[in-house]
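Ticket #4471: complex job returned nothing on first submit. Input attached below:
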Amino acid sequence: MKYLIVLYDARCSFCVRSKLWLSRQPQFIKLRLIPATVENAKLYAGDIAADDWQGKLLLISDTGDLYKDENAFIMCLYALRHYRSLAMRFADPALNPLAGRLYKLLAGNRYRLSHWLGVDDRTMARELRRLHPPHCDIPDTDSS
Amino acid sequence: MLILITYACYLITSVGMAVWVARSLHKNGRIFLIESFSHNDALADSVNHMLVVGFYLINLGYIALTLKYGSKPFDVQTAIEFLSTKIGFVMLVLGAMHFFNLYVINRIRRQSRLRLQPPPVMPDGHVPSA
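Support reply: We reran it on our side without changes. The output follows.
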């Protein structure tokens, strides 16, 4: 596995903070962090995730393996050098339900968490601009 | 004269002990290091050699530094006590260094094992065009 594409919710300030934290961590597997939009979900996750990508953390490996929700959460940790041992523990049947609950708690309350653990407005504005790049409406001069 | 004999005994015993521990670690730690460095023999031998050099420097430095400390012996009983205290401290330093080395090498070993671990969870699907 060479890299993992991470589709994250760029409208959520907590997710943006998590994304910035992920990008700063030493990685065993390169993480390509991409904002989740309809186009990106279709482009990277194909038909499988096209319908139910919203509100989910999605990971797609370079070999085409798709991970959703808590599995994606564990795979994010697996990609990081300092957190791989934690990922192995979370994947263990004894701790896996706990990891699932932790993920659901974080993902379900991500907008609420954004109030306390979000990023500053300037960073958020930059993220949102990436999500909705400004259109450049040039009048079609050829038709005249 | 007694103090000179005590110093000589101290130096011979502690240096001898440091050499024995270093040689033992060098010999028995090699296999452990080779596994830690993903069977890279050259790297393991190089680290092993550097560890032994560091081990000698710290221990011989400690032995040399602590030679003059402590109340000086004036009869056989105090000479034995003097020797026992000094050698006891040298043994504790050797032991502490030994366990510290083991801890560090074990961390490296764990990291190299982790690097080779396959993904811990099964994928939820497959994207053919990825």
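The longest strand of chain A covers residues 3-8. Closing as resolved unless it happens again.
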